[in-house]
Design brief:
Oligomer: single chain
Mean pLDDT: 76
Number of strands: 2
Number of helices: 5
Order of helices and strands: HEHHHEH
Length: 110
Amino acid sequence: QFLDKDEKSLNSALYDIYEKTGVKWVIIIDECDYMYRVCNEDEELLRAYYDFLISIFKGFHADNYTALGYLTGREHIKHFCGPLRAGIDHFMEYSMNGRDKMTKYFGITQ
């Protein structure tokens, strides 16, 4: 009902649904560093994954349709995105390892 048959990307689908409903998205990616940890030798696959992250968080009208992006993982984004992180450099990172003032509000701390 909300998508055209020839929809090309997740980014444009999220935007189209937002345009038709007026409801912004909360995007949650659990273990977002999984690809880096498991497939770190496959540069083509990693590049496609980084491009995917960039497309949904910084792509066409992403600021319009995204209310919140929440990514979990063992590694900080700066570690697993390396030089590509400039494309997704607008995240605020919090740690549950006790070195962050926000630690008490989330995660397993013991």
